Backbone:
């Protein structure tokens, strides 16, 4: 299978699932102001869902006794209030993501499908990991660009300046690069600076 064909198929499925997810979100959060809408992934993009957060929750959360600083909570989905809600809507894409991971991680037997254009057997572990993040992040960026172009995220309860991109539950170095790359392509300068500054600040405080 060609890489572009695989990515296009997954993007089409994810887009349709996001349409359903956004409709659910609009019902659930109709009384609130949503400032973020991102994909939310496990390590290696083995699972892909969605995450969002409201201004109202962020304000309440920031007043809790042991809450992290606002700059962290604002751009890290692990602190948000709408994480992987209605995850069942992403079932079809989840099946295809699982199939793609199988093709990436396993040497094909006779007659089995395989990824064309690259010889994954020649990749180091690090190169294979980077290929995986690059593959899935390109798909997620494409889907969010389409959501923007179609005006799906332009009406209430979404803010006009919406934080977009990809978030990970436990980001590795490859995941961090994917987050920054998606942010640069999807977000305005203000949000992108916050994403980049977040990682710089986290490393400073380690």
Residues:
């Amino acid at each position: 299978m060609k890489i572009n064909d695989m990515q296009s198929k997954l993007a089409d499925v994810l887009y349709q699932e996001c349409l359903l997810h956004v409709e659910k979100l609009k019902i659930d959060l109709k009384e609130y102001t949503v400032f973020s809408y991102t994909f939310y992934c496990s390590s290696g993009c083995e699972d892909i869902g969605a995450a969002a957060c409201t201004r109202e929750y962020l304000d309440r959360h920031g007043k809790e006794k042991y809450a992290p600083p606002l700059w962290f909570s604002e751009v890290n989905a692990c602190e948000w209030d709408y994480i992987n809600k209605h995850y069942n809507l992403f079932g079809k894409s989840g099946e295809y993501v699982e199939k793609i991971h199988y093709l990436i991680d396993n040497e094909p037997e006779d007659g089995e499908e395989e990824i064309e254009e690259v010889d994954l057997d020649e990749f180091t572990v690090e190169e294979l990991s980077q290929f995986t993040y690059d593959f899935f992040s390109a798909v997620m960026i494409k889907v969010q660009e389409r959501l923007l172009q179609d005006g799906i995220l332009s009406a209430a309860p979404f803010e006009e300046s919406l934080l977009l991109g990809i978030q990970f539950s436990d980001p590795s170095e490859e995941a961090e690069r994917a987050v920054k790359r998606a942010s640069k392509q999807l977000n305005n300068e203000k949000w992108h600076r916050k994403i980049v500054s977040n990682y710089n600040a986290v490393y400073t405080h380690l």
